Amino acid sequence: MEQAIQTYLDMRKRLKAYEYFDWLAGWDRETEAPKGSQAYYSKMVEVMALERYALESQADYMNAIETLYEHLDTLDPDLRVEIKNANKALRMIKCVPKDELIAYQVLVSGASNVWAQAKDNDDFAAFEKTLEQVIAFNRKLVKYLETDTLKGYDVLLDLYEEGMGVKDYDAFFDHLRTELVPFVKEVMDAPKKTYPRRLKSARYPKDLQHTFSMYLLDVFKYDQSHGVLKTSAHPFTSGVASVDTRITTHYDETNITSSIFSTIHEMGHAIYEMQNDPKYDETNLHGGSSLGIHESQSRLYENMIGRSRAFWDTHYGALVNTFPKQLKNISLDDFFGYINQAKRSLIRIEADELTYALHVMVRYELEKAMINGRLKVSDLPKKWRLLMGRYVGKRPANDKEGVLQDIHWSFGSIGYFPTYALGSAYAAQIYDAMAKDLDIDQLIRTNQISVINAWLKDHVHRFGQSKTPKEIIMHATGKPFDPSYYVTYLKDKFRP
Ligand SMILES: [Zn+2]
User: Fold this and answer.
1) pLDDT value of position 151
2) Does the pLDDT at position 349 exceed 90?
3) Whole-number mean pLDDT of the chain?
């Protein structure tokens, strides 16, 4: 056992270094790298992927994990979780043929570029073949990784959110479909308030938006000695340790709110990882418990804090100072109503809180159908429009605003989207628990978001990956997951 532990720890140290440089190169691709360098990068990635594979598949390392997995009970609790996860990851190496796995890694390393060009040109056909290959591999992957309890799409869902399969998600989305689709219709049918046209028609220069994003970093106490803010086509957070957690945002000069809420959203993700216990930095337990828990933190910061009245009572003045011409004579009431209006929309990341989960439900149903073989990639744009009409009530006129809008499938992330809706639902339950301990509005008004950060650190963040999503929800709220907190929150906020 001692020998096995030592072998595991030695290899972990080496693999962490590979992971770090892989992470750094990935960050560079998305933020700085010139387009023309892609082919060269892909060649380098192929070599590195082979090197890493050779390490991960070394017999003594695999044997060590197997030995430790057989004696899980004797390990200390943190190592026990690591070995459980390592054994799960090892199945990828043991059950999937090496040449197929490497070919797939090369495919997805270049696919986001193919996707970006197809999106720019509104040309689904240019992405179709790549997406077909991604789906084909994932359908094979499902067969390779199936267990007695996980079948089909379950296998992929479980990779992103342990313990959530088709049965669980079907129940969750059925609840949302029953409660929210008619409620959304009721809200949309109610008389609409109108807002000053200038909010939408003014031009908001990028450099000023950047100034305000930097202001937001200070308000939320995002630690700039351990993180940076850059721009990318699709905002994201990328962290490797509590000491290095970076974010991006996206500046749209015709839209004042897009970068504000992207920046706050990504800060929510980043503060989570920055507040992980530093003891996890050099282990495999750094990061979020799951994608759903991760998204719960970004949504809590973005929607429950960032769109609250207390927040804008406190910070609207600073926004007006940044855009004095554009926001002249626009009242706080108008701005506050404008950022919280619910409307039928096409773009998920721009969607309001009320309809957001319905955008996700569209993707869930499409993925499920593609993995089950009931939907061909070539039929995807048509089916996308159909479901958008049915749930959100608005159909895109082109694929750029439809099926090509998200980067995820180009990364090979199938089974990822449903965690977004789950995250919003977790957030409502966690916020409810936090509101029992703290006067959240008062803390926001007195610029003490650090106290909110500290509560979340204690109840959620510090554990990194050492607890499962179910354990985190239980620890933070004292109850198992219950989607009714989410539906209640939405109905209270948006009831006409
Ligand atoms: Zn997010």
Assistant:
1) 95
2) no
3) 95
Gap from CA of 11 to ligand 1 centroid (Å): 31
- 172 CA to middle of ligand 1, Å? 19
Residue 193: inside a domain: yes
Q: Which of 109, 143, 177 is the last residue of a domain?
A: 143
124-145 and 98-120 are packed helices; what angle lies between their axes, rounded to 10 degrees? 150
pLDDT, mean of residues 43-49: 90
Residue 109 pLDDT class (50, 70, 90 cuts): confident
Q: How many CB atoms lie within 10 A of CB 174?
A: 11
Specify whether the CB–CB gap between 173 and 364 falls below 8 A: yes
User: Ligand 1 centre from 408 Cα, in Å?
Assistant: 12
> What's the gap in Å between 417 CA and the centre of ligand 1?
10
Do 188 and 102 reside in the same domain of the chain? no
The residue range of the domain holding 138 is: 2-143
pLDDT band at 93 (very low <50, low <70, confident <90, very high): confident
Residue 295 Cα to ligand 1 midpoint, Å, equals 5
Structural domains of the chain, count = 2
95, 171: one domain: no
- Digit-coded pLDDT (tens) for 317-343: 999 999 999 999 999 999 999 999 999
132 included as an active-site residue: no
pLDDT in tens, 466-482: 999 999 999 999 999 99
pLDDT at 89 over 90: no
The whole-number average pLDDT for the span 394-416 is: 95
**Strands 229-231 and 244-249, sheet pairing:** parallel
pTM, two decimals, is 0.90
pLDDT (average), residues 160-177: 94
46 pLDDT above the threshold of 90: no
Domain annotation covers residue 156: no
52/193 same-domain check = no
User: 301 and 183, same structural domain?
Assistant: yes
Share of the chain above pLDDT 70, in %: 100
Q: Given 30, 56, 266, 273, which residue is catalytic?
A: 266
Record the tokens describing residue 57, joined without a space.
Answer: 């598949």
Whether the Cβ atoms of residue 367 and residue 152 lie closer than 8 Å to each other? no
* Last residue of one domain, picked from the residues 143, 159, 192: 143
CATH code of the domain containing 316? 1.10.1370.30
Cα of 71 to ligand 1 centre, how many Å? 36
Domain shared by 123 and 240, yes or no:
no
